[in-house]
Amino acid sequence: MDAATEIRLLQMLDKQDITECLVRYCRAMDRFDKELLLSCYHPDAIDDHGAFVGSPLEFWNYYHAWHAKLNRAHHHSISNISIELKGDTAHTETYWLFESMNPDGSNSLAGGRYIDRLEKRKGEWKIAARACLIEWNGALGEISFPEGAAEAFAATGTSSRDRNDASYMRPLRITRPAKADPIP
Rounded to two decimals, what is the model's pTM? Predict the structure, then answer.
């Protein structure tokens, strides 16, 4: 393998590790997994989310309480990840979408970008500085399913905002018998 190809492969591995860190952050927020969230940040990192500026642990304490009070369920989704590598420092721009179900039954939606500086320390890429830019927000109207469809979809199980969620099951096992109900 020539040197240029080897450099590109190493950069691809770094970019994959960075992407996995960003995705891990979203999962940690949605599953209320403090340990997983803290694994995304260097301990001396700073996070600026507008209403909050502080350390990773302070961020966790603030937003865990926020989401527990204001949302019954939520999803942090990311896309369009731009990564600029400079040695053991990376600058990223990541588009995000936040969807939530609120205690009153309404749904909220917001979008923006995470502007991050990640650093590779002791072989691990983690967030060293984050600015969360909120670019828009709104509410979703009522989303209806055909009669019986919501119940049929819910038969898989319910999601959980902790380590009881099916996403932590190893190995994943499907124990329900095979079936295919007609679409109502």
Answer: 0.87
